[in-house]
Amino acid sequence: MVQIIDYQAAQPIRRVNLNNPIMIPRSPLRVSLANIRISIPSGATRNRVELIATVGVHGVTGTSQILFRIFRDGREIFNTQVGVESDTTSEVNYVETFQAIDFNVGQGTHVYQVTAQNLTSGTEAAVVGPVSFSGLAIALS
Fold it and tell me: Which helix (H) or strand (E) holds 114?
């Protein structure tokens, strides 16, 4: 049997907006895109937190390798990397969706954060939206 113990979601950018891009800094710098707080009650020692993030990105120059990371309480628990090409002849936007599962999280309130950083020197990429981040905490019996 499973029981939902918490659900949180954030959508800081609701749609594509090329007029207000958020530049993705080159590594080791990174930009924080969204945060959520998930609470795990005492007694829910067998649990999982299912996390889903969606980020709209746009290549500005070159082909950027973008590293998306998810942190719990400042500690990385997941990462994925995608290539984002720039295209000067058309409007090319990418919408990247990724998910992670965090198992047996300790009791208390935890801050989850999704970030982005550009791994490729000499290139530029930007977050143009949408951005959404959600977490569902489930207790297992």
Answer: strand 108-118
